[in-house]
Amino acid sequence: MELIRNLDAPFTRWVAAERLLGHPFVLIDVGVQDGISTRWAALGDQIRVYGFDPLAEAIAPLEAASRPGHRYFAMALGDEDGERELYVQGNTTATSFYAQAPSRYEVSETVWRSRGVRVVPIARLDTLYADGTVPRADFIKLDCEGFEPEVLKGARRFLAESPLLGADMETSFNVSPILQDTHFWASYEPLLRRNLLVFDLRFNRVPRATYAERVRAARSGVAMVGSTHRPATCNFLFARDLVQERDSPGSFSQPPAPPSADEVIKTAMLLELYGLVDCAYDLLLAYEATLAGRLDVRRAVDILVPPTSWLGGLRLLPGRLWRAWRGFRGD
Known about the structure:
Rossmann fold, 3-stranded mixed sheet
């Protein structure tokens, strides 16, 4: 149930190929089983990855791949430094620090039944940031089976000092004895304080197990009333809306500072990578003056949304050919 992956991403690929970023894009991936999303491949060598997962067997193949600029850690993140018991599920992607009861929903038993408990290392992101293990980040992805609020509690200084442009997070609207204001609000509130707004979401719908059992039993020609199941797990994309920050700074609880050229370009890239091309296009036009001297915005938007005319298409030429064409014209 991943959010949209724009694997073409011509603007992002152009920025990476032309090395137009002042500093590489920094991604923190919390819950990195099976590796980072393929969407980030468009950044080439212009990305730095710091991935975390408490299961050593999930981290081992990622470390063995030895990809330049990628570092992986067999540890959990939370609001403590030390060790903690982890419930390892049959479906390892459902492994959690919280013990699971039998589900009332129609889900595989491997999701909620633990196959054992192990003790794993855990650290605050603030601690790792303070000792230089991780740098300030542009983006954070959180998928840690309900532990997202704890990870963010342990990242107060990191969030305050990072130029965070976006976050990809798994969450739900469920309540619990420790999260009576919903898991969503406990996870989103610290991100909202960094001026991150909802830009996209996807969710699944899972029926109650009792209903699903009834449907299976009644399949022999008995008509069943249609049902729309309650939304279950949600994936959200949060990002800074740099255009609204400029046009309506009073809308934000934290007064926004003018973004740098790097922040504008990186935000446009991540919006394109998540399929929000209209937002990326509008952003580049809005900050044309900020980007002057760093990139040709008119060429950038032609790459982002290719023109149909042959003359406009000349802007899509590789960098050297485009500069030669402009020199021929006397630009």
